[in-house]
Amino acid sequence: MTTDIITEEELNEIYTFAVQLGKDAGKLLLDAAQLRYAGSQAAALQVEEKDSAVDIVTKTDEDVEAFIKTSIEAKYPHHKFIGEETYSKGASRSYMISDTTPTWCVDPLDGTVNYTHLFPMFCVSIAFIVAGKPIIGIIYAPFLNQLFTSCRGRGAWLNETQQLPLMRNPIPPMPANAPSGCVFACEWGKDRKDRPDGNLYRKVESFMNMAAEMGGRGGKGGMVHGIRSLGSATMDLAYTAMGGVDIWWEGGCWEWDVAAGIAILQEAGGLVTTANPPEDPETAEIEEVRLGSRLYLAIRPAGPSQTESGREGQERTVREVWRRVRELDYERPGA
Amino acid sequence: MTTDIITEEELNEIYTFAVQLGKDAGKLLLDAAQLRYAGSQAAALQVEEKDSAVDIVTKTDEDVEAFIKTSIEAKYPHHKFIGEETYSKGASRSYMISDTTPTWCVDPLDGTVNYTHLFPMFCVSIAFIVAGKPIIGIIYAPFLNQLFTSCRGRGAWLNETQQLPLMRNPIPPMPANAPSGCVFACEWGKDRKDRPDGNLYRKVESFMNMAAEMGGRGGKGGMVHGIRSLGSATMDLAYTAMGGVDIWWEGGCWEWDVAAGIAILQEAGGLVTTANPPEDPETAEIEEVRLGSRLYLAIRPAGPSQTESGREGQERTVREVWRRVRELDYERPGA
């Protein structure tokens, strides 16, 4: 099945369904959170260790995924479903997005660490993928009451009323000295091994390059305007689509962490490519993001300046980031 | 004048006034932000460079401070007023909080970088200080519609209805292996000099120690649950009072960045002391925070465990943080 087979009318219907599903799932997350602080110790969340102390999974996570999966199967029995929990419990770790069957790719709870601590940056993330491309994205952060939605050709929206990016009259160009002047979002992640040149050290070296004064660090200093870490790849992408984040660079996510965010960001006019710098960052082609690559570099929507188009400004920024970051070591089978 | 001279009834009245002032000021911030994305380029914010490219000040900042100052002077002409903008333009850089006159300490816009980019973490911060101690705190983040308020003896609140910390039945103890299991908030700040052993390098070394696996980094690895950077000291403190952040460690803030947050955190049951480790972190007295010290370490409200009181757990956490962080070099005259 290809995109062509879904009519615009069907797409409208799927979009409406997905938005409501996101709202309902987010409400379940918030209700479960409120049970914890409203009340009884008995309602306290059951937290069990997964891959590491940082990667926690909650019963709520599983319950909300089951709710979303059941709802989709009832409405669209022929669509495929991929969720974080089903994946974790499955035998295969290979890339499972179908090129031929419309697929829902869902993270019932992104930012599980945040959720456990009641740090506000947690959300549900629902993407609808056709021919390998996410064309509907729904992100709902219920504690913040922020709903991000998009459908191909219909724009990207905050709370269904404010089109993204927020600043759009006009959409600002990328700063002339980017990454200087940019808000840079990055995450420390779960790989905390104290291994020379491991992911933790490569990440921090990259963060340092982006942060340090222009001309510092052997010419790699990027003097970004600010460095932000929210603990949620999904919220990082949503805020990049909004324009509040200019650059997001990350490795180690899975497709359910990013599929909805990529849909929203692309519909808003953003660019997404790979985190790892190619051999020649100055001239290499800027490849289209691969959903299952686990390596992502996102640039916010950008308008033209007097000397370049918005896309040219985004691509220039990509190359300036690549020049300052290290290659990260995250792989997956089948991608 | 000392605290005793303000009656409980007067304090109630001042608190009511301060809450409304925070709401009104936050609305001004949001209105100005919305002008930018709703519309005309003419309404675009005038941004001028201050100390560095990272330290921007906006016209909104000055307008909102003038509004707050005028409102306070009209209502309480005998109180003293200190705001970021008045300070920046004044001749003295010395500590100006009075021990004898009730003082309002105000940041009209904390998170100016965020505000400029429309990254949601910006807020107004209003503290009322008596005998050198902040006893009323108001923080309002209008984009997130999050209002944090406290008055000594009256509890700390989110949106006037949810008491802080949010998880309070019971309030969780500090994790047994803290900082492991903790959400750690920290900021990269404005000092980005590429200077060996300068603040940037000392901060990042400290962040690395907090992040790395337990036993790593020569025994300093803290394996915190997550590292968060919001770009607003005020929001960091508000979320620590809420319980969403367990530990906040920072140098370089000024008293208007932290006064309201300290009032709210202390009223919620949190602990605030100095960022810089004393000579013997394991046994040194845990000193009370000095408002003008520019060095802060905050621990969330904590309940008792089976083996220690909440305060004991907080103090144990302070010592574990001190063991892992470097001394920062921020000074001020007069503190």
From TrEMBL, chains A, B:
Its EC number is 3.1.3.25. The keyword Disulfide bond does not apply. Pfam families: Inositol_P. Keywords: Hydrolase, Magnesium, Metal-binding, Quinate metabolism. Signal peptide: none annotated. It comes from the Eukaryota. GO terms for biological process: inositol metabolic process; phosphatidylinositol phosphate biosynthetic process; signal transduction. Pathway: Polyol metabolism; myo-inositol biosynthesis; myo-inositol from D-glucose 6-phosphate: step 2/2. GO terms for molecular function: inositol monophosphate 1-phosphatase activity; metal ion binding. Gene3D superfamilies: 3.40.190.80, Fructose-1,6-Bisphosphatase, subunit A, domain 1. Mg(2+) binds at residues 84, 107, 109-110, 257. Its cofactor is Mg(2+). It catalyses: a myo-inositol phosphate + H2O = myo-inositol + phosphate. It is an enzyme of class 3 (hydrolase). Belongs to the inositol monophosphatase superfamily. PANTHER family: INOSITOL MONOPHOSPHATASE, PROTEIN QUTG. This is Inositol-1-monophosphatase.
